[in-house]
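Sample entry (260 residues):
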Amino acid sequence: MERRELLKLALAGTVILGGVGKKAIAVPAGTGIDTPVVFPPDVPVPSLEEILDSLPTLQGVAQAYEEEIRKSKLIMDNCRNRTTPFEVAMYYWQLRSGEFNQQFGAEASSYAEEWPIRANPVIVQFFNATTLHKPVGDQTAWCAAFACTCIEKVAPGKSTKSAASSSYREWGESTSTPKCGDIVVFQHKTKPGLGHVGFYVAEAPGGVMVLGGNQMPLWKKLPGGTYESRNTGEVNIKLFPLDGHELKLHSYRTDPILHS
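Predicted structure, serialized as tokens:
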């Protein structure tokens, strides 16, 4: 049994060392039989905390409850009578802002953000507009899936149908004079295949305002001067530098379907 598996079992309470007063639990078969892990003499043995910190932590991957799935469908079905992709995107921004809490319940705004344990079924359904129909919960990068959803809602078949933001780098026509509702595409500075895509809102000091999905949350200041990050990605309108720490502007894209 590999060290990683043993650590997972230990965290789950399966492997308990013997001793006075300790609860007796069966030791998994194979424990102590496999070749032990040997660290070179000049390499410090990592602590348990260091090993656990290196393990992947996936949030938002558990199945949503049935009532949550039903509510998500009602929320998405309510996005009607929108005539442009930007208006669709605005609907989900209004959802995140709490404008539909009275209609769908006090927690309705959370359906436009990532969840910590169960997968937000609204975000998962965004991937139905792409060829990637089985994301890993709601924390698979979903900015492009959000853009595809907004475009497909009013212009079926006109999006890239891709969950990769890079698919929008050649979409439509490039423009140097973007209008509200056009597409803005960013490229990662050290990982060229990665990036971000959203809807252009307006120029702003230091960059451009972008309406998009999978954008880091706007933090809420709490009493006492501390901050709380409520989620790990949401639909919001946020300032993006044209040449930031990780992302740089790739292009603005436009197409008649964005403004019809």
